[in-house]
Write the structure tokens for this entry.
Amino acid sequence: MSIVRIPQFLRGAVNLIGSVKMVTAMFRFFSLRILQGLALIFLANVCVVRGSEFNTPYGIPRFSTDLPATDLNPNTQTPSFYTPYTPYSNQPYLLQDRPSANNFGAVNVSPSSCTSITPGFPNYDRWTQQISSPSFWQVLPDGLIFPSYLAGPKEPRFGGVWNHDRNLGWIWDATAGGRFPLLRYGTKDRILPEGIQIDLEGAAMVRIDYERDLDLLASDFRVGAPITFGNKRTQYKLGYYHVSSHLGDEYMLRKERDRINYFRDALVFGVSYRIQRDVRIYGEAAWAFFTGEETRPWEFQFGAEYSQLYPANRQHGSPFFAVNGHLLQELNFGGNLNVQLGWQWRGPSNHLFRVGLQYFCGASDQFEFQDLYESKIGFGIWADF
């Protein structure tokens, strides 16, 4: 019996040892994978924090100024890297303005090249005190120094609003166009660029009657060339634009009405001011030096908007709110009011996509019908690029 049991015992011991080795190998394998996963999560979080600090996606440095924050020892005046970063802390840290590198690649930092910044909420540090990148000439730059008004019904963009008016019924107010940056002397910041910039703008704004075989009721066409300049806090616009208005053929045949030869060539001056990073108020005045029928020289536009800039809430989006007023001299400085409320998404180049509700009341935003009062509520989709 003993002769038979000994080999069985040995075989059991060997199997046990083999099982222990297999379990150990599996433990080491899964432990390494877990550690790798934790390391990736940590690096992702660090990149998000540093990316928001430098205003670059995923924390990838874009310029030589986008280097880690440094701390100067006031006694020795020698730089040392400031490792801990707490986004919600009020402890100030230092950012290098324009560091230089020696022959061995080490960064030389002097006290005069550092500026103190106090961090606050992530992605929303005290942005008015952030150090700007160097200014230089850029052809076809990214971003707009003076963005279009979100609730401006005559702003060039791509979008449409499905409206209902108690007198007109269901109509579709659509816009096809946009703003295009041509040349800039300034920073390369895509979100809040600074400097001076030349843009081109153009759009066709049409109204389609949903209840009468999608007839074209009217269309306005706008083209312009604004020059914009400013910093993160205040922006200015000085430019020229032409707008002309036309009645739809089907509408003229049905109503037996002639079109108004409405057009204006105008010089415009606007000011935009950011109360904080995501809240903007604005106003502009335009004087038309060449006008058509039933058109007078002066018009004014003003408003306010709340719209979070990139990278806030990225893929989840964020709410927005905008209100715009438009006054015209030919209406005895009466006009219309437009209010929008909805949800938005922004891309790394600050491109904007919005969906939401719109309420419009006052003189029609189609210049051929501006002697008519409209009260419209609808659902809209807008894209600014």
Summary: Residues 136-384 form a domain with the Outer membrane phospholipase (ompla); Chain C fold (CATH 2.40.230.10).
